[in-house]
UniProtKB/TrEMBL annotation:
Coiled-coil ranges per UniProt: none
Keywords: DNA-binding, Transcription, Transcription regulation
Entries under InterPro entries matching the protein: GAF-like_dom_sf, HTH_MetabolicPath_Reg, Tscrpt_reg_IclR_C, Tscrpt_reg_IclR_N, WH-like_DNA-bd_sf, WH_DNA-bd_sf
Lineage: Bacteria, Pseudomonadati, Pseudomonadota, Betaproteobacteria, Burkholderiales
PANTHER family: HELIX-TURN-HELIX TRANSCRIPTIONAL REGULATOR, ICLR FAMILY, HTH-TYPE TRANSCRIPTIONAL REPRESSOR ALLR
Full protein name: Helix-turn-helix domain-containing protein
A single MF term (Gene Ontology): DNA binding
Gene Ontology biological process terms, A to Z: negative regulation of DNA-templated transcription
Superkingdom: Bacteria
């Protein structure tokens, strides 16, 4: 990443008109780099990505660690988001109107299917789980609240994309990393487009072991009163537990849950 298009340069540029925010913007830029990294970055990577001098990055990371916003991992040489930041995010999600409106329907969906249920919203070109209800079975999902999943391979991502117009969708597809998580992950853009069209036609999405090996998911969008998606719900299960009658066992309860949540949100869109 060049210094001209780095988070550091854009953040400081936005803050030029506000006195006293330049230093704060540097902290936010480094924090954002750590949050966006696919693997925990070290100091050298943060220096290269931010364009800041190495001593500056050292001071910023040390201050973020002291506040619990960043934690050292991998023997102390790389960095990830810290427990305090995760806690703050969790509090925000817990208090969101969407989550509050959804929780009863999600519980009913989990109890009906006996499988793990997620509630997700879009975030910076991905989907993030803001609620998770565990399956009562012993074998469960490794995901957690705050987990980010790809929009092109997850059921919630496909369900979200299917609600967008082509003009809204294409920039997201062009920018989305097409990572092959498993042998089943689609990375060809035309194949992904076809999958999104199929999702739009039938009203639900499938993740056929595309995000995680041996895990199958069904996802659908929650539509607000204006017809725009405000979030997505998924039902996930290991392949060995997947029922043959998917329509009755998973899809119908999933779509019913999305309709119930939409009705509870009322006329005001949560988008």
């Amino acid at each position: 990443m060049s210094t001209t298009d780095s988070p550091a340069s854009s953040q400081s540029g936005d803050a030029k008109g506000v006195a006293g925010t330049a230093a704060f913007s540097k902290f936010i830029a480094v924090l954002q780099l750590i949050a966006d990294a696919s693997t925990p970055p070290n100091i050298a990577k943060l220096v290269a990505a931010s364009g800041y001098p190495r001593p500056t990055v050292h001071r910023i990371v040390a201050a973020l660690q002291a506040e619990g916003l960043v934690a050292a991992v991998g023997g102390g040489n790389t960095f990830a988001l810290g427990p305090r930041l995760v806690n703050l995010a969790s509090r925000s999600w817990e208090r969101s109107d969407l989550r509050i409106a959804a929780v009863d329907a999600l519980m009913e969906l989990r109890n009906t299917t006996s499988e793990t249920v997620h509630l997700a919203v879009p975030s910076d070109g991905a989907m993030v789980y803001i609620e998770k209800l565990e399956s009562p079975h012993a074998v469960r999902m490794a995901s957690r609240i705050g987990t980010r999943v790809a929009i092109t391979s997850s059921s919630v991502g496909k369900a979200w994309l299917a609600t967008l117009t082509p003009a809204e969708r294409e920039p997201l597809l062009a920018q989305a990393p097409r990572v092959r998580f498993t042998e089943h992950t689609m990375t060809d853009l035309d194949a992904i487009r076809d999958e999104i069209e199929l999702t739009a036609q039938r009203g639900y999405a499938e993740d056929r072991e595309e995000n995680e090996q041996s895990i199958w998911c069904y996802g659908a969008a929650i539509l607000g009163a204006d017809g725009q998606a405000v979030g997505c719900v998924s039902v996930s299960m290991p392949m060995f537990r997947r029922q043959d009658d998917a329509q009755r066992s998973y899809i119908e309860p999933l779509l019913a849950a999305c309709r119930t949540i939409a009705a509870r949100l009322g006329p005001v869109s949560a988008r």
